[in-house]
Amino acid sequence: MGSAGWLPVTEESPCHVCGKSDWCSFSADGKKAICRRKDGGAGVRRTDKSGQDYWLHELNGHRELILSEEVWQQDGEVPQKAGPQTLDQVYGALLDALALSPAHLQDLHRRGLTEACIKRCGYRTLPLKGREELARTLVEHFGAEVCSRVPGLYENEAGRFSIAGSAGMLVPVRDIEGRIVALKIRADEAGEGSKYTCSKYTYLSSTKYGGPGPGSQVHVPLHDELDLSVVRLTEGELKSEVATALTGTLTVSMPGVSSWRPALEVARSLGSGVVHLAFDADAKHNEQVARALRESYRTLKERGFEVVLETWPRERGKGIDDLLASGHEPTLLVGEDVHAAVNEIVAEATGVWQILKNAVRATELMAIEFPEPRWIVPGIIPEGTTILAGKPKMGKSWLALGTSVAVAGGGVALGTKRVERGAVLYLALEDNPRRLQSRLKKLLPGGAAPEGLELATGWPRLGDGGLEALEAWLNTHPDARLVVIDTLAKFRAGQTGKNLYKEDYEAVEPLVELAAHHNVAILIVHHLRKLGADDPLDQVSGSMGLTGGADGALVLNRERGRADAYLYVTGRDIEEEKELALSWDSTTPPGRSPGMPRSIATPVRGRRSRGAFARWVNRRVRRR
After folding, report:
1. Structural domain tally of the chain?
2. Phi and psi angles of residue 311, each rounded to the nearest 5 degrees, phi first
3. Are residues 536 and 438 in the same domain?
């Protein structure tokens, strides 16, 4: 175990947060996890002794703040890592005993490095075979006690020292004095079935075998003859070597995008006054990179550095090394241009940019020519979602079904409103096929049912495939104009009662989006409260989440046994709320059905206010 109570993640047990199999860890009791890539929305951000950010997560649901010193305190069983001078000597001896394969040499040439630069940097190839022999030579020269404190060297079960890590190219990691303080492995492509499955770049480490780890090391390329007044910061040791060689500007490598703080200390120690930031071109699409860019820029400005931002199109290369190797140069931004560019990158990476695009200038809005609202029933039911609420057995389902027949056949709705023809889906979720057929016969005495009307007495609920089924129906009926859900209680998901407003709003919100996407009307049949109210909308059963979430509302008030009724009409596309007088037909003349509105009048003479309408309703409630 590498650190007290903490285990490294593996392929079999990846990070609980980012899902990766390296760099992160979890506690031995399985109650906590440390992710070094992202917070996952619930992590506590910390910084370890090397200046690297990480996020502490509770896996048992109870947050306990743990200091970074407590997390990374070494226990007595783990050998202390050797000092930089010793590491430089041991790693140097290891590199001297290795060669560089032709394939790795060719790859370095492809990146733009010369023979002299490759030799000077000390790249080598670490093979799979012969590791015990290499380790034995190092132990004979430096001693077992020293080698046990060098990350990457470990004593195996047979009691012999060996070298950890997968096969690949070794990249020396140097400190500001040029000493090799760590080795990075650029892993070769693992063949099928290979047990050496790991990230592309990993440190040579002994933590898996109870030995020390390398920590997070800033890489500073050799810079004896370079002007140090200007430095560049990027991520990746090999990337920094290529950028240094091709531009002549010392390029310091951060051990990770979240570990930029130690790199800033290197710039200060070198006496640099100008710092170029060369983060990868995918920063606009990687929130972690974008946030690290913003924080490093702010800190550099606070410490008095002049900051230059290097940018380039993604198609010219992800990293600064790819860009330079292809013969191109970055665009240099300075001053306020850096501030604006950094904010833009963060906004786009975090999704804020898309949110900001939703804002429109008033002058632009006034210049847009919008089409008139599409009316399914002129002046009463526009496209969008409308709640039709009434008391039980008072005609709301008859009104909805009659409107559906009229729209499907291109006839007249509510006695006087001529409607445009279109496909209609009627969900009669409180009826059975026999009763539904009986109602249609009364609505269509001697006439044929319209081809455009489809009916269903069973439908999945919202959350159980109901919304997806509606979407599928609308996709197969491009001429659709109306969907009726009768009733909401039979369609919505189950309620917990913990937050009525939220549950009511969420019951209609997806229907609002569906109606807007397909430019149709969705009429939702619902009930009224038993008691009256001053505001007609307050009569609708449930919270204000229903009427507030829907685009419009129709409140039907009718006294049982009476022919007259009032329909209160309001909505986002209703310029002036109104009350319409309905006359109910009880004599059933040809072409009419019992309980159906025979005619609908213009707004009531003198136009009742909401209060007047409520008083009319309350008078009838008190008569009972």
Report:
1. 4
2. -130, 160
3. yes
pLDDT band at 253 (very low <50, low <70, confident <90, very high): very high
- Determine the Cα–Cα distance for residues 47 and 31; give it in Å rounded to an integer: 20
Measured between alpha carbons, how far is 185 from 240 in angstroms, rounded to an integer? Answer: 15
| C-alpha atoms less than 13 angstroms from C-alpha of 412 in its C-beta half-sphere | 10
Domain with 398, as residue range(s), is: 375-623
pLDDT grade for 92, boundaries at 50, 70 and 90: very high
Task: Please write down the long-range contacts of 27-36, taking CB distance under 8 Å and 24 or more positions apart.
Answer: 28/1, 29/5, 30/59, 31/58, 31/59, 31/60, 32/56, 32/57, 32/58, 32/59, 32/64, 32/66, 33/57, 33/59, 34/6, 34/71, 36/256, 36/258
- Does residue 225 lie in a domain region? no
**Residue 163 covered by a domain:** yes
With beta carbons less than 8 A apart as the criterion, state whether 132 and 150 touch. no
CA atoms of 171 and 186, how far apart (whole Å): 7
3-state secondary structure of 169: strand
Alpha-carbon Rg for the chain, nearest whole angstrom, is 36
Structure tokens at 324: 């330079």
What residues have CB less than 8 Å from 415, skipping those under 6 apart? 583, 597, 598, 599, 600
Q: Which residues contact 109 (CB under 8 A, 6 or more apart)?
A: 118
Residue 455 pairs in a beta bridge with 426
365 domain-assigned: no
Taking a C-beta distance cutoff of 8 angstroms, is the pair 104, 110 a contact? no
Question: Pick from 15, 42, 71: which residue ends a domain?
Answer: 71
Instruction: Give the pLDDT score at 249.
Output: 96
Is residue 210 a contact partner of residue 3, using CB atoms and an 8 Å limit?
no
Q: Of 177, 209, 241, which marks where a domain is finished?
A: 209
Q: Rounded to an integer, what distance in angstroms lies between the CA atom of residue 594 and that of residue 442?
A: 8
Q: Fill in the DSSP letter of residue 219.
A: B
Give the pLDDT score at 617.
39
Q: Is the pLDDT of residue 61 over 50?
A: no
Give the type of residue at 293: L
| Residue 88 and residue 109 share a domain | yes
Residues 332, 386: one domain?
A: no
- Cβ within 8 Å of residue 536, ≥6 positions away: 553, 555, 568, 570, 610, 613, 614, 617
Burial of 201 (0-12, 13-18, 19+ CB in 10 A): middle
Residue 621, pLDDT above cutoff 50: no
* The residue type at 301: K
pLDDT score at 580: 85
Q: Do the bridges between strand 153-155 and strand 161-163 make them parallel or antiparallel, or are there none, so unpaired? A: antiparallel
Give the C-alpha separation, 503 to 545, whole Å.
Answer: 8
> How do strand 552-558 and strand 412-413 relate by DSSP bridges?
unpaired
- Is 127 found in the same domain as 58? no
List the Cα angle 19/261/233 in 5-degree steps: 90
Q: What is the distance in angstroms between the CA of the first residue and the CA of the last residue of the chain?
A: 79
pLDDT, one tens digit per residue, over 43-58 is 777 766 555 667 787 7
Asked if residue 495 and residue 451 are part of one domain, the reply reads yes
Q: Does residue 614 carry a pLDDT above 60?
A: no
> Which one is predicted more confidently, 558 or 442?
442
